[in-house]
Amino acid sequence: xxxxxxxxxxxxxxxxxxxxxxxxxxxxxxxxxxxxxxxxxxxxxxxxxxxxxxxxxxxxxxxxxxxxxxxxxxxxxxxxxxxxxxxxxxxxxxxxxxxxxxxxxxxxxxxxxxxxxxxxxxxxxxxxxxxxxxxxxxxxxxxxxxxxxxxxxxxxxxxxxxxxxxxxxxxxxxxxxxxxxxxxxxxxxxxxxxxxxxxxxxxxxxxxxxxxxxxxxxxxxxxxxxxxxxxxxxxxxxxxxxxxxxxxxxxxxxxxxxxxxxxxxxxxx
Length: 269
Ligand code: NAI
Ligand code: 15L
Hints:
The chain has helices spanning 15-23, 53-60, 78-99, 137-156, 177-180, 184-196, 219-223, 236-243, 251-254, and strands at 5-10, 29-35, 46-47, 65-68, 103-109, 159-165, 202-207. By secondary structure, it is of the alpha/beta class. β4 (65-68), α3 (78-99) and β5 (103-109) form a beta-alpha-beta unit. α2 (53-60) packs across α3 and α3 runs parallel beside α4. The termini are far apart. 1,4-dihydronicotinamide adenine dinucleotide binds at residues 11, 13-17, 35-37, 49-50, 69-73, 84, 88, 107, 109, 165, 167-168.
């Protein structure tokens, strides 16, 4: 599959969406934007809730692919997570099926496997085949989304790359992020690879940069053509000096989901 392609970007007003609005078009992708909130600087963006099936169907009509970022991105009540991330993602896949959109790039999360032990020196990196071990209702909704993607591939032939994103922010801001960081530029590289690789079926990948302290096996991402260029290591000395290493035996020390395993940040709305 080659660029340029028309791509629906859901969650366009959010943190990653805002960065990708700048970083994806240079790869040749023409973006259509959707969010439940107005998208600053984009009067043409579709303002719609994932609950609105008719609006979703109209929004996906004619696009070549969807990058699905919209939803609750932290922990919340089961009911809110269910509505936005479970039912909302179902609605989006139904719209894609009805309108014949063949490729989805799905924002999954490391919190789908948050209770997985993090590898220590010399231990193998965590593979994508590790069992789901969600650390929150939020992580659980990402497990569902990955399985929904598998169902849509097996049943309807809709292809998906599920990206278990680590921490995608302009720079790492914690010791944990030295392992989990996905730089915005590498995020764009990965999304481009996921949009254009041939015959992905349903492929699960981790989304992180080429971090010296990486926990995740990036081989399935690399197989799509993703070549990460960034590494969090230049931030290490400053972050370790500022925060110290996590106490031995703490969730931050033990699990890839870190603090989400004990005291997850809450969705504010
Ligand atoms: P964000 O919270 O900044 O953006 C999410 C966007 O989705 C918001 O603009 C929000 O208005 C929109 N949204 C929420 N509910 C909606 C609904 N019912 N209908 C339509 N739009 C709705 O999140 P961020 O950081 O940009 O993350 C994007 C995606 O990537 C999310 O799915 C998140 O779970 C996932 N992710 C992000 C990571 C990160 O490091 N930023 C790490 C792992 C996964
Ligand atoms: C996520 O899934 C969240 O959406 C994001 O805000 C970060 O907290 C990230 O995980 C992380 O693990 O750092």
